[in-house]
Amino acid sequence: MQHDTPAVMIFAAGFGTRMKHLTRTQPKPLIPVAGRPLIDHALTMIDAINPPRVVANLHYLPETLEAHLQGRPVTTLRETPNILETGGGLRNALPLLGTDPVITVNPDALWAGPNPLHTLLDTWDPARMDALLVCVPSARTHGRSGGGDFDLGPDGRLRRGGDMVYGGVHMMKTARLHEITDTAFSLNAVWNLMVQDGRLHGVAYPGHWSDVGHPEGIAIAEDMLKKHHV
Questions:
Q1: Could you give all domains of the chain from N- to C-terminal order, each with its CATH number?
Q2: Which portions of the chain are predicted below pLDDT 50?
Q3: Three-class SS string for the chain?
Q4: pLDDT tens-digit map of 47-92
């Protein structure tokens, strides 16, 4: 179900500790994969949907990302003195985003197939959904260990458990962010509320997806892009 494109939030504030030496002097979104920084891969996806505004939250080595994004249509927001996690970071950025719902993007994953943001917009139905997550069947994920995050029901509703992996792209109404009293919190806290109400939905991504969460994940992601290039 097509709707006007909302604003986009890029989560770029994390420390990237699992990347070890690669993040000693640069934040994780600047790590190159297939010849381009991770955040540039995300921006290419985002540019394709022409959102009204894009906001990136920063915390670890923020000046390096500010310099990289200078001249691009991205508003940066430093989280100080403490990092706010995904939920707190999104709530903190709402005055800059200016739309409801909003799209969020984790830049530390790569996609091989259709633009997941198009998949998101084509599926979104505000009458049934408070949030919509793009999920990937575990058999089509790369560079990730462990099981899935969610079970995707035939009605599109998500429940915890199952073999569907959250790919780091989602769209949500923002009102329930204000139900969380903590300053720093994960979006998972809001999603749990939506699960209880049957308002958390998912859509299965038809392509492949790779997590770049550790140094070995770079080569894995590059191999996926070569094998499943579209």
A1: 8-227 (3.90.550.10)
A2: 1-2
A3: CCCCCCCEEEECCCCCHHHHHHHCCCCHHHCEECCEEHHHHHHHHHHCCCCCCEEEEECCCHHHHHHHHCCCCCEEEECCCCCCHHHHHHHHHHHHHCCCCEEEECCCEEEECCCHHHHHHHHCCCCCCCEEEEEEEHHHEECCCCCCCEEECCCCEEEECCCEEEEEEEEECCHHHHHCCCCCCCHHHHHHHHHHCCCEEEEECCCEEEECCCCHHHHHHHHHHHHCCC
A4: 999 999 999 999 999 999 999 999 999 999 999 999 999 999 999 9
